[in-house]
């Protein structure tokens, strides 16, 4: 049986919970398709997040790695297409670090593309009645930092596939942010189960429109 590593973050930015970890921890030990899911929490800290992720990958040797993060203000499940080689933090991380215009990997490529079947994942979620889309930016905070570092590691002959998915606030968080969209934890969990199943099964992504005009 294949191992699937799924990660979520600790709370940050004044929140008391992070929906990524609240949902991801529910998947720990699940069998989805041909994969056994192992969940790990990442610190919302530049540098340390990648050290924790790298150690988990080295320990588990997973076939598939899905990193999940909170995107407060987004209304749907957004499967990220690309990570860019820059840290440019609008707010401090959980250790008060706030890098500006700093490369994640010195002399690394400008960007890495997800190796997940991102459009097949989005299509399967939509078919299940879950709002989902391809995202063209993972931001420049710790989520992008992790996505870039993950893909940089996997690009060097590992044979693993990986990428990043952003999820909305949970309803209990949105209650403190009037007007902000949210999604129930049960719906997010179903979306991630679909993403894992598709990631294990689909080797060649679908040719569907997933672009944006701005």
Describe this structure in words.
Homotetramer. This is Pyrrolidone-carboxylate peptidase. GO terms for molecular function: pyroglutamyl-peptidase activity. It is an enzyme of class 3 (hydrolase). Helix content is about 30%, strand content about 20%. By secondary structure, it is an alpha/beta fold. It has a single domain (about 1-200), classed as 3-Layer(aba) Sandwich (Aminopeptidase), CATH 3.40.630.20. The protein has a seven-stranded mixed beta sheet with strand order 2-3-1-4-9-5-8, sandwiched between helices. The protein is globular and about 40 Å long.
Number of helices, counting only DSSP H or I runs of 4 residues or more: 6
Number of domains: 1
Q: Please summarize the sheet with the most strands.
A: 7 strands, mixed
Percent of residues in helices comes to: 25-40%
Looking at this structure, what is the CATH superfamily? Answer: Peptidase C15, pyroglutamyl peptidase I-like
**What is the CATH topology assignment?**
Aminopeptidase
User: Mind telling me the C-alpha Rg?
Assistant: 16 Å
Reading off the top of the CATH hierarchy, the class is best stated as Alpha Beta
Layout of helices and strands, plus pairs?
Layout: E1 2-9, H1 19-27, E2 31-32, E3 35-42, H2 48-60, E4 64-70, E5 77-80, E6 82-84, E7 111-113, H3 118-127, E8 132-135, H4 142-154, E9 161-167, H5 171-174, H6 185-201
Parallel strand pairs: 1-3, 1-4, 4-9, 5-8
Antiparallel strand pairs: 2-3, 5-9, 6-7
């Amino acid at each position: 049986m294949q191992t699937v590593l799924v990660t979520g973050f600790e709370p940050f930015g004044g929140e008391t919970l992070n929906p990524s970890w609240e949902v991801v921890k529910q998947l720990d030990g699940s069998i989805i398709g041909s994969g056994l899911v192992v969940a790990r929490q990442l610190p919302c800290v530049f540098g340390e997040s990648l050290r924790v992720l790298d150690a988990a990958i080295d320990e588990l040797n997973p076939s598939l790695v899905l990193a999940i993060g909170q995107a407060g203000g987004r209304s749907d499940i957004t499967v990220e297409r690309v990570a860019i080689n820059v840290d440019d933090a609008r707010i401090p991380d959980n250790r008060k670090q706030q890098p500006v215009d700093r490369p994640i990997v010195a002399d690394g490529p400008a960007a890495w593309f997800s190796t997940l079947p991102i459009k097949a994942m989005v299509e399967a979620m939509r078919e299940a009645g879950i709002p989902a889309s391809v995202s063209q930016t993972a931001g420049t905070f710790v989520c992008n930092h992790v996505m870039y570092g993950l893909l940089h590691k996997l690009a060097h002959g590992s044979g693993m596939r990986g990428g990043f998915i952003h999820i909305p606030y949970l309803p209990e968080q949105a209650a403190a942010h009037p007007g902000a969209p949210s999604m129930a934890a049960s719906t997010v969990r179903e979306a991630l189960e679909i993403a894992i199943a598709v990631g294990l099964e689909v080797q060649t992504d679908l040719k569907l429109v997933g672009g944006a005009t701005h």
